[in-house]
Amino acid sequence: MNDLDEKRERLLDLIRSFQSCAVAFSAGVDSTVVAKAAQLALGDRAVAVTGVSPSLAERELDEARRLAELIGIRHELISTEEFSNVDYVRNAPDRCYHCKSELFTQMQSIAPRLNVEVILSGANVDDADDYRPGAKAATEHQVRSPLAECGINKDEIRQLAAQWDLPIWDKPAMPCLSSRVAYGEEVTPERLEMVDRGEQFLRDQGFPTVRVRYHRGDVARVEVPAVDIAKLCEDDSRQSLAEHLKGLGFRFVTLDLEGFRSGSLNTLVPIETRTNS
Fold it and tell me: Is the pTM of this model over 0.85?
């Protein structure tokens, strides 16, 4: 048995040690692997829970439904109310804490109805290397992170997804839409719809890995992988993108010449804030 096989069995054994569980399920690779492991380990005693709000991209909700059906796990949708929290809307660097706290609070409130013992997240060992204020909320709500507890990193998660024939094994990271709004700019449903529709347009044009980031003054900063920048700068692509984004409400459209960087807005967070999170 190789190292990945050992970690897989350790993951399944850990989840089997729970009487039942609810997985915070976003349809990303991490939470999908946890959902699959929970279904294998606990069967009907596992449930996937997806929080629905304007911060969830429309296609991600569709994918969550499709993946839950494919895995064969019970799937619950809950409406989260993070936009009623002024600390979330003001969009300070700790925004993710308020979002995760709302999600886990809602999940705990329905746990008796779902008859689940523990809440699981998709956090993994690589998350410790990034600024993750949501981890504080997980600790406060006694959320377990089986991937991290079993020492499983992002590459191994993708390998497990491929082993289990999960079609999203190579899916790019897809954090919530609010992560596209520059810190200090209010997060509003209208701005997130602009971002969501802009990214959907680019994916339909053949750019699967993309970010449309919102900056002050209704400025769109578009990120695609460096190898795709020349393609996006071709006259037809460039003009159609500018027209489409302006039609959505952006006043200016810019292209980031450094290319796609997951979590690039975190570079704006003071180092002492990241260190003390």
Answer: yes
CB atoms inside a 10 Å sphere around CB 114: 17
| Domain at 3-163, CATH homologous superfamily | HUPs (3.40.50.620)
Question: Which two structure tokens, joined as six digits, stand for 141?
Answer: 């709500």
Which CATH number describes the domain made up of 177-261?
A: 3.30.70
**Residue owning tokens 């897989």:** 8
SS3 for 120? strand
Structural domain boundaries in the chain: 3-163, 177-261
Q: What is the pLDDT along the chain (277 residues), one digit of tens a residue?
A: 689 999 999 999 999 999 999 999 999 999 999 999 999 999 999 999 999 999 999 999 999 999 999 999 999 999 999 999 999 999 999 999 999 999 999 999 999 999 999 999 999 998 876 667 888 999 999 999 999 999 999 999 999 999 999 999 999 888 899 999 999 999 999 999 999 999 999 999 999 999 999 999 999 999 999 999 999 999 999 999 999 999 999 999 999 999 998 765 655 544 444 444 4
For residue 86, what are its two tokens? 């002024």
